[in-house]
Amino acid sequence: MRLPESFKERMKNVLGDEYNAFIASFDEPSLKGVRMSTAKLSPEDYENTARILDPEAARVPWTSCGFYITNDTSGKDPYYHAGVYYPQEPSAMLPAEVICARPGEVILDLCAAPGGKACRIGDDLKGEGLLVANEINSERSKALNRNIERTGITNCIILNEDPDSIAAKLPGFFDKILIDAPCSGEGMFRRDPRAVKSWEDYGPEQISRIQNDILNVAAKLLKKGGEIVYSTCTFAEIEDELMIDRFIDSHPDFAIVPHPEIEGITHNPDGSMRIWPHKAEGDGHFCVHLKDVSVQSDDVVKTSEAGFARYSSTVKKSYDAMIACYEEILTGDAIGEFKKSCEQRLVMRGEGMYLMPCDPRLLNGLKVVKSGLFLGEIKMTKYKRIFDPSNSFPLCLNRSQIREDSFISYSSDDEGLIRYLKGETIAVPEELSGKIKDKGLVVIAVDGFVLGLGKIQGTLIKNMYPKAWRLL
User: Fold this and answer.
1) pLDDT digits (tens, 9 = 90+) for 397-442
2) Rounded to the nearest 5°, which phi and psi values hold at 14?
3) What is the number of other CB atoms lying within 10 angstroms of the CB of residue 261?
4) Could you tell me whether strands 254-256 and 346-349 are parallel, antiparallel, or unpaired per DSSP bridges?
C-alpha cells in the first residue's frame, strides 16, 4: 500500500533491520476480533461463544476475553444485539485490560466513542461505582450511547463535553481515567487507507499538542493515588514515549506501572507497551499505565464511598405506573430489589425516569447524553398516565430476575429473531405454548440472552423493539 515517504524514512531510522518486515506487514490483511461480555458470560463460556461466531476462533493473548475471528461480524446477528460480544480490533482491547476496572471504582473514559473500551470497563464494574464516558463529538456520542445501552450497563453517565469543562466541574473526582487519545493513526494505515490522507493533513507534530493538553487535564480530574491509562494507535514517539516523558517531567508525582505479566506485546524498558504489526497479531498500538504515587494505595478513599448524596425526585403516580408495568416481567425478589434502587436513585427529568448512579447535581452545567439507566417515560392520555418502558432496562436483567411466564427465548437460528429485530410481529414458539401468559409485557431473548420487549396477545407478540435500533 502507499505510505508517506517521511513516515517510511522515520520508521527506517527507528527499526533498522526490522524495517522491511514492518513495511511488509502493511500489505497483510487487517485482523478481526470480538470481545466477549464479561457481564453476560462467565469466563468458562467465552471460548464456546466465540466459536459460535467462528469455529476457528483463537484467543487474543493480551486480554482475558478477546478472540480473533475470520468471519465478518454482522449487525444482523442477534448475539450482537443482545450485547453478548463487541466487534473490536484485537490491539484496541489492550487499554481496557490494563485499566482493570473493579466494582465500586469511579472511572472516566475521556475519549470514549464508539465505546469498545467503555463497554469493557462498564462490564467489569458490574453495576457498582460509576463510569463516565465522554465524547466531544456529538454525532459520535450517539453511537457511544447505543453501544452502552446494548451492553446493558446500568451505572454510566455519557457526556458530550470538552475535557476542560469536566475538569472545572469534577476536579480530583476519578479513581481511574482512560485516555484513548486522538492520534495521527499510523497503526490504522493497513485497516483504513483514509488514515494515510488524515496523517498527511494532521501529522504527529500537530496532534501531539492536543494529546499533551488532554493529559494535563486528566491530571486535574484524577484523585490523589489514582491511575491513568494512555493509549494511541500510532508509532510516533512524539505522541507516545516522548509524550509520557514530558508528562512525568511536569507531573513528578506520576510513575509508570509496568505490566510484564501481559503476553504477546513488546514491553519497553520504561514500562510502556507496544504492539508492532510485524511482531504480534494486531495493528499498531501504544499503551502506558500511569499512577499517582504521592500517596499509598491504602490511604485512598473510593469516591463512590465518599461523595454521592442520596437524591430522589419521585412523582408518586408516575412511579406507581412504572412499578405496575415492570411487575409484569420481574420476579417478586427482583421487583423488591428494583423498588429499593428506586428509593435511593430514581430521578425524573421531564417525563423520563432514570436510575442515576450518582447525585445528578454533580452534572449541573455539563452536556449530558445519558443519565444512568433509562427506565422509560410517562405518556399522558385523556384518562390516565401510561408508562412506556425502555428497551434499555431489560438488557440489564439476567435470567433469574425475569418471570417464567414472561420470558420467551428463541434459538439463534430462528427466523423469528430477524423479524423481531426488523420490528415485525412474531409468534410464540410452539414449544412454549401453555407456559407463557396470553396477555401483557414479555421479554424476548436469543439462547437466553435478552434482546428486548414485546406485548403478547394470545399467540402473537406485538413488537416493541425501538425503531432506531431495528434492522433495515
Assistant:
1) 999 999 999 999 999 989 889 999 999 999 999 899 899 999 999 9
2) -75, -45
3) 5
4) unpaired
| Domain ranges across the chain | 96-298, 308-359+372-401, 403-472
Distance (Å, whole) CA 463 – CA 469 = 12
SS (H, E, C) 287-321: EEEEEECCCCHHHCCCHHHHCCCCCCECCHHHHHH
373-380 vs 426-427, strand pairing mode: unpaired
What local confidence, expressed as pLDDT, does residue 312 receive?
46
The C-alpha cell that represents 351 in the structure block: 417525563
Quick count: other Cβ atoms within 10 Å of Cβ 40? 22
Rg for the chain (alpha carbons), in Å? 24
Least confident of 104-118, 132-146, 263-277, 302-316: 302-316
33 close to 68: Cβ distance less than 8 angstroms: yes
The architecture (CATH level 2) of 403-472 comes to Roll (2.30)
Q: Is 65 a catalytic residue?
A: no
Q: Nine-digit cell at 321?
A: 405506573
Q: Catalytic one among 233, 287, 325, 396? A: 233
Half-sphere CA count of 180, side-chain side, radius 13 A: 25
- Residue 213, CA distances (Å) to 97, 140, 186, 220, 358 in order: 25, 21, 21, 11, 27
Distance CA 91, CA 63 (A): 9
CATH of 96-298, one of 3.40.50.150, 3.40.50.720, 3.30.360.10, 1.20.140.160: 3.40.50.150
Fold match between domain 96-298 and domain 403-472: no
> Is the entire prediction scored with pTM above 0.85?
yes
